[in-house]
Amino acid sequence: METLERKQRSREQTRSGIVLTAKDIARREGWQAVSIRKIADAIDYSAPIVYEYFDSKDILLDEIRNEGFHHLRLEYERIKKVYRDPEKRLFEMSIVQWQFAMAQPEIYEVMYNLNGAYCVLPVRDSVEVEAISTIIREIIFTFIPKSQESIQKLYFEWWSLSHGMITLAMMLRERQPLEQSEQVYRDSIRRFVRGLR
Amino acid sequence: METLERKQRSREQTRSGIVLTAKDIARREGWQAVSIRKIADAIDYSAPIVYEYFDSKDILLDEIRNEGFHHLRLEYERIKKVYRDPEKRLFEMSIVQWQFAMAQPEIYEVMYNLNGAYCVLPVRDSVEVEAISTIIREIIFTFIPKSQESIQKLYFEWWSLSHGMITLAMMLRERQPLEQSEQVYRDSIRRFVRGLR
DNA sequence: AACGGCGACTTAACACTGTTAACTTGACGT
DNA sequence: ACGTCAAGTTAACAGTGTTAAGTCGCCGTT
User: Fold this and answer.
1) Do A80 and A174 fall within a single domain?
2) B69 and B48, same structural domain?
3) Domains in chain A, number
4) Is there a contact between A184 and B156 if contact means CB atoms under 8 Å apart?
5) Contact A160 B161 (CB under 8 A)
6) Which parts of the sequence belong to the HTH tetR-type domain (chains A, B) (predicted)?
7) Burial bucket for residue B20 (CB in 10 Å: 0-12, 13-18, 19+)
8) Which positions on chain D have an atom < 7 Å from some protein CB?
């Protein structure tokens, strides 16, 4: 049975090798350059092997995307433990979102189907997105206990503000330095959070 | 020389036929389904003919994108003539942007490289985008004559808010009705505009 | 009237893409 | 030594962007 375990482990390794390679190509050449054959070459296999781990390219992209949302969710939960003040919590979570997008733009791109990354599977029915949604809405609720509908609106506002600034900052980064965009981001988020009470 | 004029006109017609067909396929099947051969088939030509009008698919997409920005710019200039109050102007321009994105989502997608639309050519060095930027910044300036840098920041804020809400509203439209998103959009824009004075 | 050239257009090709069926190859148990 | 089975490969299909080469008919010249 050792052999089986060894086989299992190697399966896990090649699987994560596929994911790692996909992200690596995306980071260096953009998502449009990510192809099954290129991934297979990089992990020293032929293309059909990739299909033994992911039924389609779409499912591979979906996994990477969910990995991204999962990472974000863990960060949010960490912040929730560290800080008690809801204002501080929401602010720190916003900052984490910015930092994540700047540190791993290719992941952020696949999460939102940006710049050549295209995943047909809808984002909406993902447990990770749902979990993130719940965390943020709970925080908003803790310091404005309004109706569910109002909370949803405020969540939508927060998400839009953050996502809009992140995508435009990336798009305009040649013309407007990222540090300046980040400053505006921090100010805007702070103002939004203040406005909640 | 009539023949030449006639040829010219027919050239213009096939050219716009290409653009029209590309947008039509994008609207119905998404940008990922737009291919040169499919366009050529639709206008009853073979694929290489398309290359006599557009040197590459990228340049075709760039033209459609600029067409979108141009349309938006004309709308902004129209609004500028109709209203004198800067608050009203900025609000109406925001509404136009929303309506444009909802009426022609495929154009909005190619303008921002969204959902499978991917154009390598950078958006930034487009005269249309520059013109729009100038219009909005001028309006912001007319009722807060601050430094160029502050104006740029406020412009970035406005653009982010609008773009973020539009993209997320489209993304979440199955889960959150567009009418509700539009209401939040209007409220947020109104609040932003009010906050300017 | 025959010929040359030219412009409009098509076919064929190249190197890719995602995806699947069919095949090879080598190790293991009987 | 033989059959089985899993791991992995090759080959193929239909499609992509893009370009070179070829066809075909018209028009002016000799």
Assistant:
1) yes
2) no
3) 2
4) yes
5) yes
6) 12-72
7) middle
8) 7-12, 15-21
